[in-house]
Amino acid sequence: MSADSDQIRITAEPQGLPQNCLYRLDRNLYAGTIYVSDIETARQWVPIAAAIMDGTEGVRGVRVNNAEILVTMASVPEDWRISARSTGTAIRTFLASDARAVEENAAANLTGTDEIRARAQNIVDNQLNPGLASHGGWIEIMASDGADIYMSMGGGCQGCGSAQSTMKDGVEASLRNAVPEIGHIHDATDHAAGANPYM
Asked: Are residues 145 and 173 in the same domain?
C-alpha cells in the first residue's frame, strides 16, 4: 500500500448559511446523524466533535452524518480557508489516532438543546424525509442556535412552488407537534438555486 493511499481525503464546502462549512470525508464516521454543541458532552460521547472544537476557534456546534461533518461557527469567519485548514487538521489528527468518532449510545446521552435537536432530527429522518422523497425532495437541519433551528430543502423541494406551504404546514407543524420545545424554525433554503423543482 502506498503512502498516498493512507492519506485521509477531506473536501471543505462553505454552505449557503455563511457560518456553516461541510466537510466530506473518504470514510464513514457514524451511521446516522448526531449534533453536539456542548464541549463536555462532545468529549465524552462525540470525540471527533471535541477534537474539532478544541482545534478550531469559534465553533458553535458539529454535526456528524455518515461521511460528512458540518461545522457551524459562532460567527461568520472572515476567511473560511483559515478555519477550514484548522478543522481539516483536527479531523486528520483525530482519525489518525484510530479512536472512535462517536461513542455507542451517544444520541441517548445528549442533553439540553442538543437533545431537542436530536429529537427533531429523528422526526426529519423517520417521518418527513420518507414522504418528501416521493417528490424527489428532502429537508435537513443545517444549524441551530439554542432551541431555534435552520432548515434547508433540497432536491425537488428546492424551488418548488409549494415549498413555503410544505415548510410551514408540513415540516414546521410536524416538528412542533413532536418536539414542542423547538424555538423558531427558519427556512434557510436558497430556493432560486433549485435545479429540478417538483412543481
From this structure: yes
Which of 73, 107, 141 delimits the end of a domain?
107
* CA-wise closest residue to 30 among 121, 95, 102: 102
> Of the candidates 18, 60, 66, 33, which has an alpha carbon nearest to the alpha carbon of residue 188?
18
Residues 52 and 17 in one domain: yes
- Residue 174 DSSP SS3: helix
Question: How would you class 130 by CB atoms within 10 Å of its CB: exposed for 0-12, middle for 13-18, buried for 19 or more?
Answer: exposed
pTM: 0.82
41-64 exposure pattern, b = at least 16 Cβ within 10 A, e = fewer: bbeebbbbbbbbbebbeebbbbbb
Alpha helices for 46-186 (secondary structure H): 47-55, 80-96, 112-123, 129-132, 163-165, 173-178
pLDDT tens track for 106-146: 999 999 999 999 999 999 999 888 887 887 778 889 888 88
